[in-house]
Design goal:
The chain is an alpha+beta fold. The protein is 29% helix and 18% strand. It has one domain.
């Protein structure tokens, strides 16, 4: 599936804030290269991209390090 980066909160026929598109970086040193590519893609599209560009952050209120998606599933499968 191809995501259309100028569509706001939409992927294909699905719509809602859970379908927003984003680029998240882990280190500020990554930002210049990301911004360069981002700017190039906006130029190609001829308009602003509807893509979040932010530093990744811990969204869990309990603090700590969030698990990598699928990591828990892998551990559960190993018990089967």
């Amino acid at each position: 599936m191809v995501i259309v980066p100028i569509s706001v909160n939409r992927q294909g026929n699905d719509a809602g804030i859970q379908y927003r598109t984003g680029i998240y970086y882990t280190d500020d040193s990554q930002l210049p290269e990301i911004e360069k590519v981002f700017s190039s893609e906006e130029e190609k599209a001829g308009r602003k991209l509807a893509v979040e560009l932010e530093s990744i952050r811990n969204i869990f209120s309990g603090g700590g390090t969030p698990e990598i998606p699928g990591e828990k599933s892998q551990r559960l499968l190993s018990y089967s």
